Amino acid sequence: MSSEPCECKKWYMKVPHTFTILFLLIVLCAVATHFLPAGEFQRVENPATGKMAVVAGTYHHVDPSPVSFFNTFIAVQKGMVDAAAISFFVFLSYASFYTVLKTGGLHAFIGWLLRVMKGKEIVIIPVFMYVFGLAGAIFGMFEETFGFIPLFVGLAIAMGYDAIVGMCMVVVGVGIGFSAAFLNPFTVGLAQKFAEIPLFSGMGFRIASWFVFMTFSVIWVLLYARKVKKDPTKSYVYGVDMGALKLDNEELMNSKFHPRDISIMLLVVLFVALLVWGVIKRGWYFDELAGLFVIMGILCAAVAGWGPDKIAESYVEGFRDIVFGAMVIGLSRGILIVMREGNIIDTVIYGLSLPLASFPAWFSAQGMLFVQTIVSFFIPSGSGMAATTMPIMAPLADLLGFTRQTAVLAFQYGDGFSNIFFPTTLCPVICSIAKVPLEKWWKFFTPLFLALYLLQMIFIGLAVSMGYQ
Q: Could you tell me the pLDDT band of residue 158, with boundaries at 50, 70 and 90?
């Protein structure tokens, strides 16, 4: 008998496949529709925001609609269809950047950047994290940064780090900035309107909290980056095929930045600027952004001298490369489909809010933070969550003895930080674009998420103790 140790892991020691995790969540939610009472709030249009908002105190039971065994499986298909706009956005945006990368223009730019920063590459990490963090805090930028992800993943790998570090430069930077924002009109502004308090009031406290959250996250990422550079096997994505996003450092260092490459890079910069302008000034979203990326990919390929067939082949390769990630998005949407069809989303919100009235102000405020964090799993839209929870939480804060400003802070934290963690949010989209398996991202980000939650609790405690206005 061989004495060699078995390399196979026992089933209970393995991290389940992403599809397995998401389907189990669909099943659990379907089971919950058989036990939780179906119910809903009345909703009316809020004149201050123009959005449909929950009317506090109007929760009522409706006819039960438990999701059957067969409909649980149908939810997979319905989730794919419901998330089609996002999934096809991922297909088109990734394939467009894949095409730009194949032209070599971005590779030449990264090579130039590496030569300029030789020996000081690590400085790039905090600089860009703070830049993206400010964009999230001031403009509410989030989805607009998705186009940067492939570039920074390639840059991080070329610098001797890994895809997670590249992903963090963009996603953790903008995600933390968005979550702890001081001017974000899509979360802070909207929630304050629903709470009927002065727009963008309490900014000093928010700026302080933004700086603390950002600095803590930057340090966390830097420590991980140094560990990976010292020993690549410590990377959570060690051995994962990054496809076209993986760039060779030596090849990049020897590359030349030709006029054609400069033209391609300028086109990318122009289209990113157009993207930011379109989102902020014209309200563009996934459809418009996808169209913009397609134009960018075709123009960059044309500048590189490619013909139509070669461009088409490149897009097919890009689609093939990202198909797994795009399917994750549809599967995760199946969770929300089941809860929506079972009419239990409002039931969960109502049930979570009830216990808050039984505790002292300091404890209830922490409970409100917890409730808002859980609710963000079921309502991944910040504006949708504000319209659903703030009409309940703002008057509840009056009864519990802490300020409405603190209730807004609890909403802001609860909604924001989960955007790069929960599978029902944009997290699967981000992982798909970065080609980082969802379970690998969770392995890296879960400890940081928990540490950030403790920081949130501290700031909520401070807000209660100082009567934050």
A: confident
Per-residue tokens: 365: 């405020």
Q: What is the pTM of this model?
A: 0.78
Q: How many Cα atoms within 13 Å fall on the side-chain side of residue 26?
A: 27
**The dihedral sign for the CA sequence 351, 352, 353, 355:** positive
- Greater confidence, 61 or 284? 61
Burial class (CB in 10 A: 0-12, 13-18, 19+), 392: buried
pLDDT digits (tens, 9 = 90+) for 323-370: 877 787 788 888 889 988 999 988 888 888 888 877 788 889 999 999
Quick: pLDDT tens for 425-445. 888 888 988 889 988 999 999
pLDDT in tens, 372-392: 999 898 888 787 888 888 888
pLDDT range class, residue 9, cuts 50, 70, 90 = low
Q: Give the 3-state DSSP-derived string for the chain, with helices as H, strands as E and coil as C.
A: CCCCCCCCCCHHHCCCCHHHHHHHHHHHHHHHCCCCCCEECCEEECCCCCCEEECCCCCEECCCCCCCHHHHHHHHHHHHHHCHHHHHHHHHHHHHHHHHHHHCHHHHHHHHHHHHCCCCHHHHHHHHHHHHHHHHHHHCCCHHHHHHHHHHHHHHHHCCCCHHHHHHHHHHHHHHHHHCCCCCHHHHHHHHHHHCCCCCCCHHHHHHHHHHHHHHHHHHHHHHHHHHHHCHHHCCCCCCCCHHHCCCHHHHHCCCCCHHHHHHHHHHHHHHHHHHHHHHHHCCCHHHHHHHHHHHHHHHHHHCCCCHHHHHHHHHHHHHHHHHHHHHHHHHHHHHHHHHHCCCHHHHHHHHHHHHHHCCHHHHHHHHHHHHHHHHHHCCCHHHHHHHHHHHHHHHHHHHCCCHHHHHHHHHHHHHHHHHCCCCCCHHHHHHHHCCCHHHHHHHHHHHHHHHHHHHHHHHHHHHHCCCC
**Residue 378 corresponds to which tokens in the numbers above?**
């079921």
Return d(Cα 416, Cα 209) in angstroms, integer.
14
pLDDT of residue 73: 95
Question: Whole-angstrom Cα distance, residue 180 to residue 138?
Answer: 10
- Using pLDDT thresholds of 50, 70 and 90, give the confidence band for residue 58: confident
Number of Cβ atoms within 10 Å of the Cβ of 62? 12
What mean pLDDT is reported for the chain? 86
